[in-house]
UniProtKB/TrEMBL annotation:
Pfam families, per the entry: AAA
Database matches in SMART domains: AAA
Gene Ontology terms, MF aspect: ATP binding
UniProt keywords, alphabetically: ATP-binding, Nucleotide-binding
InterPro entries: AAA+_ATPase (IPR003593), AAA_ATPase_domain (IPR050168), ATPase_AAA_core (IPR003959), P-loop_NTPase (IPR027417)
Top-rank lineage group of the source organism: Bacteria
Entry keyword Nucleotide-binding: yes
Name assigned to this protein: ATP-binding protein
Residue ranges annotated for the AAA+ ATPase domain, each copy included: 112-244
Amino acid sequence: MAKADYIVSLIKSHYNNEPERFTTMALQIAAHEAKLGHTLVANEIKNIIDKTKEAKNKTKAFASDLQGLILENVPAVNLADMIASEDIKSKINRIISEFVQRDKLRKHDLENRRKILLSGPPGTGKTLTASIIANELNLPLYTILMDKMVTKFMGETSAKLRQVFDLIEHRQGVYLFDEFDAIGGERSRDNDVGEMRRVLNSFLQFIERDNSESLIIAITNNKALLDQALFRRFDDVILYNLPSIDEKRALLKNRLVQFTKKIKFDDLLPNINGLSHAEISLACIDAIKETILNEKQPMNNQLILRTIKDRNAAYHK
């Protein structure tokens, strides 16, 4: 993008009252200046943004009906910190790239990916992905607690859902619908109740009509449970799996980096079966805690194998 285009986009975002887009364009200008060798200018722009980021991301009060249903977070995790397959990283990069360059896409009557479905076993990086996208785009992350959204009162859940989509339209951010199975179940199931079918129909209508500047991310542990009508409403579906051998090794080395000389990582790999990314990380943390609290317990393969065994017993009886 030429420098003049950056300036035009900055002016547009200012007068359209789009502070998030203004920040995105400012970061692009900083990157452009850095490539030209103007490091002082680039660093000054980044410092200004960093100093104001915390203030810009302060929690704003939600409507009384939504209190306790939405959590706001200020993520601080980067894509480079994520251990996942190259396919998943590539798809996350594509979402980020399309958002940053959405003006370029719109010139060709195309829209960036904004409605994303993440599916896979617990602990494989789905929630982490939403945090990464929010942080990389300098947007707040709003998590909608679906278990609290669903109520026994006729029509109340749909009414709350309408308020959430009004918020999505008027307050730009990354909106995470966690435990999406709560409303996204197959409508034809015999044990489904009429109220939940109405809620799902409402969601389908809201997400199809949504033309906001926000990103919508829904998470499910099993996409087979979801109504098939949902899939065409999402721009992208990313599937997560338990870690591969290479990912297991990377997770162990990442968590136990200060003990690399004391551990034979390849000897541990055959014993890590069925554990998710999060569970492997927790097993490593358990081992680190034990070496800190028990001076007689050195870090070694036996200790890590024991904490891995404990995690397996806890999660996979």
